[in-house]
Each structure stands twice: as C-alpha cells, then as structure tokens.
Amino acid sequence: MNKIYVVGIGPGSYEQMTIKAAHVLESCETIVGYTVYVELMKKHFGNKEFLTTPMKKEVDRCILAFEEAKKGKTVAMICSGDAGVYGMAGLMIDIGATRYPEFEVEIVSGVTAALGGGSLLGAPFIHDFAVISLSDLLTPWETIQSRLIHASMADLVICLYNPSSKKRHDYLEKACDLIMEHQPETLICGIVKNIARDGETIEILTLKELRDKKVDMFTTVYIGNSNTKRVGNRMVTPRGYEYER
Amino acid sequence: MNKIYVVGIGPGSYEQMTIKAAHVLESCETIVGYTVYVELMKKHFGNKEFLTTPMKKEVDRCILAFEEAKKGKTVAMICSGDAGVYGMAGLMIDIGATRYPEFEVEIVSGVTAALGGGSLLGAPFIHDFAVISLSDLLTPWETIQSRLIHASMADLVICLYNPSSKKRHDYLEKACDLIMEHQPETLICGIVKNIARDGETIEILTLKELRDKKVDMFTTVYIGNSNTKRVGNRMVTPRGYEYER
C-alpha cells in the first residue's frame, strides 16, 4: 500500500523536530502545508517541491497532497507542533478513507506548542492538565465556556491555544473571568510568545494580570492549578503531595 | 552559569527523540535516569557514565544528578516522553533552586506518550483534551474522580496515564464507570501498549468494552469525545463542525 505522511514539525526550530520527522521529510519529494510552516522548512530541506494553501483551506490542502501522491510522488503534509493536536492528521485520515483508500496515512508525532512552551516556562504540566482552544471558528463559544469552567472546577492546569485573533480580541479576558469564578486571581500563569522562533519571550504572571494582557495568535497561554508556584523565574506544578527537601 | 539538562527522550525509540535531545545527550558526560530508560539509551549513546535510581526515588535521583554536575561533569537527567509531563523537570527546578542555585536547569521537550500513542491510533486530539493520571500515589483518589467527572461533563477527549498497577488493578474500571455517568457507553476509545517499543499494539473499542479491559502500566488509554469516530481501523476526533466532503 502506498504511504502518505502527515508530519508534526514541532514548535518551529529544526532542532525541536524529531529525528523521524526529519528523516521522513528528507525522503519525500513533495512537502505540502500552510504557507508559514512551509517557509520554515524550505531552508532545511532544499531541492523539493513545496506546495501551500492559505489558512482555512485545510480540505483543499489535503486534496492537493493526495493528488500529488496519486501522481506517484512521495508526499508529506506538514503541521506545526504535533500532527494530531489541532493538526491535519484527522482530516487526512478522513479524506483518505473516503476518497483515496489506496493510501495508508502515516502520522509522525511532534512536540506540540503546549510542551515546547512549557519547557521554556519551567514545568507547568507535572500534573493533570487540559488543552483548550479559544477559537470559535468551528466550535460554539458555549462549548468552550463549559470546558473552561469544568477544567477550573477540576483544578486542572489549563493550556490555551488560539487565545486571540483580530476578531476575538477579548476572548482571553472572557476566559480568565470564567476561570476566576472557580480559582483565585493570584493563580500562577504563564505566556509564551513565538515559541522556538525569532522574538521568543516568556512571562510569568497572576491570573488577574493575565486577564488584562494583550496576546496574539502566536501566543500560548498557561494557567496553573491551585498548587502551581513560581520558583525564581519559572512556573512549576508539583507532582502532588509535598516531598521532603 | 553552569547548565544541567532535563531531557525528554520521547516514547521510547531513538527516532522519536528530537534532534535537540539527541545533541544534548551526545554532548553530556553523564546520563542519569530511571533504570528502564537508561537501558534504552545505552545502545545509542555509548562511552558515557550512566547512573540510575529505582522508581519512587525521584528526589535521590535529582540530588545524584546535581552532585555529579558539581564535580564538573555535564549531566543530563532523562525522562520518558516529555520532561515536563509527569516528568522530572519540576523536581529538578525545585531542588536546583533550593540546594544548587549555581546551576541553570535547561528543559528539553519531547513527544509525550499521549501524542506518540495518539499518532498510532489516528487523530484522537484534533480537538480539546485532558490528560489525567490514575495513580493515587501522590494524589487523593477524590481529586482524580473529580477530574474524570468534570472532563466527561465538558466532553473533553481524555488521555489516561498510569491506568493500572498491581495495587490498582480496578482503577480503569472505576474511571470508566464514572465517565459512563456522563457519556454514552458507545463512546469510541483506544488503547496503546508499549508505545515505540517491542510488543507495540493498538486497539480501538467502545467505552463499555474498555471498562472490562485488562491493562498494565505500559498502556496509555484514550477516551473520545461525543464526536470521536472510528474511521477504518483509526480513532479520529473531528475539528468541530462538519466540513464538506
């Protein structure tokens, strides 16, 4: 059976890609992806065909990849982070099964933004956590609200993807207000901008400070649980019960 | 400032490590870790000092790493998956800040089991999800219960770490019973055993079937949300609203 690959390239730098992801991309003739990520890969993998489609054209992008593969080319669809975390792996499997059943879709994992940024902040995910996207493009805001409320009530560490966009400039503020109904405003939080790219910055702050923070679509947001603490300039969630020092 | 590294080696195979993790381990003189993971690394990184401590001796393991570094050696503490997801990153930062402030603790991200196994199953995490450990070694069972209930009520995809052990043979059954109070027993679930190691197997099943499944400590469990579906032999969570075919 012919293979087509869906590859998570990690948070952005070549070094944070897995060895397998690099091998697969080296072995492919055609790399398909969203414009921004294809540009990031061009400098590391030359002498290939690079095909792009803009954002919100994900179905077209999948069809483009399969059609290239049908011509006999080895094709990889790339995604930032992990191919399966809000990535293209699902659509590729789905469209493959319906329209291109002659292909086996192989998914290659990567370091998703939550983990890449988490390492920069310290260790926010040493205990249970939830990953929630604030984008209401394909999800009703009521569902997002319910997830924020339940995650706060369960005292889960929360990582927010897509915390803002031009149309949704006040969503992070709304999210923090919901969380503050169940968690103290002194909760330790963190933000990471431009993970593994130019302009990478981190900041540790309280939930109340986070509420009034301006963030953009290249920001990942971390909201601690009731045990999360600031250790120097890092954000650390303990494993559970205290341990001896 | 002297550096000490905490490195996530990914789910188990050399290929699923990041390029950065491999570079850091190659550059180190001493690799410290839990016995099982140190054995996995020995074949790839020869000519080094390897130091181990058994499970539940995590504080001792951190002190061992720092004491080696104090002798002037470059030291990496290794963890399976990501160094920050139930990993050693938190303890290393904490113990470093208290006892060894002369060292900067650098965390190197990796592919955590949830993502490595998710890629094998298909695409379970295309939408919001929670990661919850069923181990009550350092967490009260009441807290774990509350997290399972809230995550189900919020219709989050759930990934379970540590679903079973000798002492906790019925915890997965208990967890499924709690989730079934809020989700249908036909919910699509998946299990992955021995991710990226000998004996790797996947299985897709319903929540009801999962309840009666025998799993071990090398199993990662995936519980879909109400939209998760079976596509051929894969588990796929859609992005949200339906899309045109």
Note down, in words, how this protein is organized.
Two copies of one chain form a homodimer. By secondary structure, chain A is an alpha/beta fold. Chain A is 32% helix and 26% strand. Chain A has helices at 19-27, 35-42, 58-70, 89-99, 113-121, 141-153, 171-180, 207-211, and strands at 2-8, 30-34, 49-53, 75-79, 103-108, 122-123, 129-133, 157-161, 188-193, 201-206, 219-223, 229-231, 234-236. The first copy, chain A, has a five-stranded parallel beta sheet, with helices on both faces. In chain A, helix 3 crosses helix 4 (89-99). The longest helix of chain A has 13 residues, at 58-70. At the A-B interface, helix 1, helix 4, helix 5, strand 6 and strand 7 of A face helix 1, helix 4, helix 5, strand 6 and strand 7 of B. Strand 7 of chain A pairs antiparallel with strand 7 of chain B, so a sheet runs across the interface.
Continuous helix count of chain A: 8
**What is the helical fraction of chain A, as a range of percent?**
25-40%
Anisotropy-based shape of chain A: elongated
Output mean pLDDT of chain A.
Answer: 94
Main sheet strand line-up of chain A? 3-2-4-1-5
Question: What is the CA–CA distance across the termini of chain A?
Answer: 56 Å
Q: Please state the oligomeric state of the protein chains shown.
A: homodimer
- The portion of residues forming beta strands of chain A comes to 25-35%
Describe the biggest sheet of chain A? 5 strands, parallel
Pair with the most extensive interface? A-B, 78 and 78 residues
DSSP, total strands of chain A: 13
| Structural category of chain A | alpha/beta
Radius of gyration of chain A: 19 Å
Poorly predicted segments of chain A: none
The helix/strand series of chain A, from N terminus to C terminus, equals EHEHEHEHEHEEHEHEEHEEE
